[in-house]
């Protein structure tokens, strides 16, 4: 039986020198949660329309979850991007919290 597909996401400017550590934490948690991590997408603060580009990757790969080190890696850290949440669950590595697609109103 195949495992569900996930991707990792982070912003290089937020991770800084911790990027290798953040990537390993994403890999580890995805594995523990039973996902096949397809890739880790790393954008910078210079990336145009990062949420839309991330949604494109999720759709193209058919990922059902996105693992992110923390909500700080989104443009508005207080909230999860709704467009992304309509496509995939979002799991934060720092809290192990899963924002599910069913939470979208």
Mind telling me which CATH architecture this is? Answer: 3-Layer(aba) Sandwich
The CATH C-level class name: Alpha Beta
Q: What's the story with the biggest beta sheet?
A: 5 strands, mixed
Shape, per Cα inertia axes: globular
Fraction of residues in H or I helices: 25-40%
Query: What proportion of the residues form beta strands (DSSP E)?
Result: 15-25%
Secondary-structure element order, N to C: EHHEHEHEE
* pLDDT averaged over residues: 93
Number of domains: 1
* CATH level 4 superfamily: Resolvase, N-terminal catalytic domain
What's the CATH topology label? Rossmann fold
Rg to the nearest angstrom? 12 Å
If you had to describe this structure to a student in words, what would you say it looks like?
- With 105 residues, the protein is of the alpha/beta class.
- The protein has 4 helices and 5 strands; from the N terminus they run βααβαβαββ.
- A hairpin with a 5-residue loop joins strand 4 and strand 5.
- It has a 5-stranded mixed beta sheet with strand order 2-1-3-4-5, with helices on both faces.
- Helices cover 32% and strands 24% of the residues.
- It comes from Nocardia macrotermitis.
- This is Recombinase family protein.
How do the strands and helices of this protein lay out in sequence?
Layout: E1 5-11, H1 12-15, H2 19-32, E2 36-43, H3 50-61, E3 65-68, H4 82-85, E4 89-92, E5 98-99
Parallel strand pairs: 1-2, 1-3, 3-4
Antiparallel strand pairs: 4-5
Organism: Nocardia macrotermitis
Protein name: Recombinase family protein
Short description:
The chain has 105 residues and is α/β, with parallel strands linked by helices. The chain is built from four helices and five strands, in the order βααβαβαββ.
């Amino acid at each position: 039986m195949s495992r569900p597909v996930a991707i990792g996401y982070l912003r290089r400017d937020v991770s800084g020198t911790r990027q290798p550590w953040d990537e390993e934490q994403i890999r580890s948690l995805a594995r523990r949660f039973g996902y096949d991590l397809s890739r880790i997408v790393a954008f910078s603060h210079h990336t145009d329309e990062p949420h839309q580009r991330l949604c494109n990757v999720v759709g193209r790969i058919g990922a059902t979850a996105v693992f992110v080190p923390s909500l700080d890696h989104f443009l508005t850290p207080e909230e999860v991007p709704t467009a992304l949440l309509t496509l995939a669950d979002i799991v934060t590595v720092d809290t192990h919290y899963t924002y599910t697609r069913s939470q979208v109103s």
